[in-house]
Amino acid sequence: MARALKNPFGIRFKLVFLSSFLLVIPWLGYQYILEMEDYLRRGQEQVVLGTARALATALNERPELFDEGTFSPAARRSENLYVYPIYYPLALDDSSLIDWRDYQRYELPYGRANTIATPLNPQSEFSRYYHNDESLNFSLLVGEHNRYLYAYLKVVDNNVVYRSPDSLSIHRSDFLQISMTSRDNRLHRYVISPRGPEFIYAYELGNDLRDIGSLTHEERISGQWYETPDGYVVELRMPLNMLGERLGFAIYDVDDPETRNVTAVVATSDVNNKERLGILLRPTPEIDKIVEGMGHTNSRIQVVDRSNRVLLSVGDIQSASGLSLVEENNEQSRNPYWSYIEEHVLHPLYYQILTKPSNDFIEDLYVGSTLEGAHLSAALSGQAMTQFRTIDSSQTRILGAAHPIFADGDVMGAVVVDQNMNGLRTFRNQALETLFNTILGVMLLVAVGLFFFASRISSRIRALRNQAEKIIDDTGRLKNTIVASRNSDEIGDLSRSFYNIVERLGQYTNYLENMSSRLSHELRTPVTVVRSSLENLGMTVSDRESSVYIQRAEEGINRLNLILTNMSEATRLEQMLQTSEKEKIDLARVLAGCIEGYRLAYPDAVIEGDLQGPVMINGVPEYIAQLMDKLIANAVEFSYHKKPIVVSCRVIKDRAVLRVTNYGPYLPEEMKGRLFDSMISVRPQEKQKEPHLGMGLHIARLITEFHGGQIRAENIKEYEGVAITLLLPLLHE
Fold this sequence. Notes:
Blueprint: H1 11-19, H2 24-59, E1 81-85, E2 108-110, E3 136-145, E4 148-157, E5 175-181, E6 187-192, E7 198-199, E8 202-204, E9 216-217, E10 222-228, E11 231-239, E12 247-254, E13 262-267, E14 280-281, H3 285-292, E15 300-305, E16 310-314, H4 336-350, E17 366-367, E18 370-371, H5 374-380, E19 385-391, E20 396-407, E21 410-420, H6 422-471, H7 490-540, H8 544-579, E22 583-586, H9 587-601, E23 606-611, E24 616-619, H10 621-638, E25 644-652, E26 655-663, H11 696-706, E27 710-715, E28 721-729
Parallel strand pairs: 1-3, 1-14, 23-25
Antiparallel strand pairs: 2-3, 3-4, 4-11, 5-6, 5-12, 6-8, 7-10, 8-9, 10-11, 12-13, 15-16, 15-21, 17-18, 19-20, 20-21, 22-24, 25-26, 26-28, 27-28
Helix pairs in contact: 1-6, 2-6, 6-7, 7-8, 8-11, 9-10, 10-11
């Protein structure tokens, strides 16, 4: 029967492979969360549009809020400070005014006409008209973004004098004074007096500039002081909640580093008199009051006029995620091993397919100080609209909603509310991470369970296979049985079926094995009767013809008796081997005695010995002689006439090697593996002089195995002949 191809995929692999189809469950969960994200996105779109609609409704029918004349420099007084809306955050640490480039056309100059008298330079209030020094002047611009007031002073000074490194006084060098009223209408004065180009460090003054003990640090004012070829620049920021209705700036100039006296002060207004401070004017104060209440919507809100110019901007698009996610503070309760696996294994795997939101992006809808976009164009045309757009650099999605503002039937501007979708995307990612973690955990448990279940099944099947392979030995005889399983499943039923089959097969084999001895025993009695009858008949019959028939009958009886003897020989030998005891013998000496006897028994055969001894083994000499009888009888019968039969014995690699070779016909290839089985013979039927049942080499194999050795037959390649080789273990003393 053709040998079945070995399948490399066992039951365990197949069960684990089939369990992999359960991965469709994470895919379904992923699709469900994407649908949920779509619903949330639609809801967020309606919320943003509703916010824009509410603000636009509050600003409707108020055309004065969009009067462009409030931006005109010709309409301003020099004491008052105009605040311009800035639609993006300004960098205060880049030592340049590049971020102000869209607004620098609104800056105002201050110089000789704006000098004032202070306690540090006591001059009359009319000194400005007689001050001819052009060495000190500055330009000022004030803006607002996200509830912060930004300002810069670009100062021209031919001799900049900084505060000494070891000086505590703040009035004996060039410095900036900021005066303002708070919301409770109290005057507050602050001084910035650096020791060189550096980040500014503001102090709040007491009643006297020269009183060092009254200075207190004000950390809410931040910015930078840096030098330019013709002077220096002061760029600063402060929160709007510090300010009331009035604000002023003054530059104090010291030219002589030795005397360190203030020589001139150029200011926007009288910074030491609350009543004469300039008024802080904002082009959209009413709009700001209306929008200020909407500043907690986690959105960026902008008011745009019909020229696409941004009048007011509240909020930062980078932090305007719309959806607020509060993470539970459970870091201490989390398993550190699970956290490590999640961070270094699961998250890198998940974010191969997920997009991780980033707030590090720059919006590209602005041109100068104006805003563009399809949603804004539609709103300025009178139609509310929402728009999703993607910033390619960070894959961040922005949701914008624009709603028109009407006055007398005309569109005066629009309210634009923007949110980034990072909050929603973060929520989606967290939901997917939780889903994937749960499903992967369940899948892992299922896969491990299936693996152990398949391993259990495989081990039981393999145990049954191993028992089945051990039932029959190399000679085809039953030597073991199968242990019947008590399990009630299909494998248990198969085990019990095999057990019943082996039991019945064992009984039948035992019957066949004992049949020859029983048959031999039963036939000997009638053979004896026939033999005795023939002998008696031979004594009474005297004629020649009857004597011939009686002689032939006796030859048949002898032949039948030989057959019965051969049939029972193997069985008797097996029984004798079970009770025999081995002894220490010299194999070479036993073989030498056998060879001498064979030369006498077979005078026509040429029998040679090649013995190298002593070869000590543990065995029985009589059985060795019986084994040699069978081998020599075979060799004599199959040898060519006058060709030698060689019996050799020597020690090779701790084993005794006994070899009987003869010149004769080759063994058939198909019989080599079965030559030592019972009832196997390769003699042609017509050449058999005596009955042969194929038991000789079988007996030789039984004796060899009794001595713990191996026997094999092979054809000799050098010449036409056959060699039978025995390998027997040596006796280790």
